């Protein structure tokens, strides 16, 4: 059974924006909020050249990377054609307005890696 870690409240995330969740010795997680308050979580690293997706613009269920404007799907972390590549996505649970991430994923995905973005 998953263990969940509370990371913020939905209202802490800007609408059509993101909040960064810092981790020790790992790339941060970007938690996104859509116009209808759906929440998604991706590694804060674009599959192209590592751009900080948390600084992109959310539209629909996608985010536009701030570096070269690739469109990344929030549900799967994958670039939309003709671009290719995926960044890891994280499981998410919202309970009474509180956003939770899966503890095992937080402690394993992209651990020990650093962001390539500069
Ligand atoms: S780094 Fe995201 S589009 Fe290039």
Overall description:
With 118 residues, this protein is mainly beta. It has a single domain (4-106), classed as Rieske Iron-sulfur Protein, CATH 2.102.10.10. 3% of the residues lie in helices and 39% in strands. The protein has one helix and ten strands, in the order ββββββββββα. The model has no long low-confidence stretch (mean pLDDT 94). Bound molecules: FE2/S2 (inorganic) cluster.
SSE order and pairing:
Blueprint: E1 4-9, E2 17-23, E3 26-33, E4 39-43, E5 57-59, E6 62-64, E7 71-73, E8 89-90, E9 92-95, E10 98-102, H1 103-106
Antiparallel strand pairs: 1-10, 2-3, 3-4, 4-8, 5-6, 6-7, 9-10
The protein binds FE2/S2 (inorganic) cluster.
The site of FE2/S2 (inorganic) cluster (FES) has 9 residues, from loops.
